[in-house]
C-alpha cells in the first residue's frame, strides 16, 4: 500500500483520503472500517511509502472541530 503524507516538524498530516475496497478490521466490535490506501496531498509534496511492521495507534480527527472521529490500535500488523 502507498500513502502520500505531509511530513513537517509539527505533525504528520493528511489533506484528503481516498477509500478503497481494502478494509481495516476491528475485531473487538465486529465492525469494519475502510482503510486508506492512497492519500493525495499538495502536488508539490513527494509521496512517501509507509510500511508498518510494528504496533501503532491510528487517529482520524475532524480538523474543524478537533474531535476524534476514529481511534484505533493495531497490535500485530500483518500482510494477508
From TrEMBL:
Xref: Pfam families: Serpin
Domain of life: Eukaryota
InterPro entries membership: Serpin_CS (IPR023795), Serpin_dom (IPR023796), Serpin_sf (IPR036186)
Annotated Serpin domain residues: 1-77
PROSITE patterns referenced in this protein's UniProt entry, alphabetically: SERPIN
Protein name: Uterine milk protein 1
Source species of the chain: Bubalus bubalis
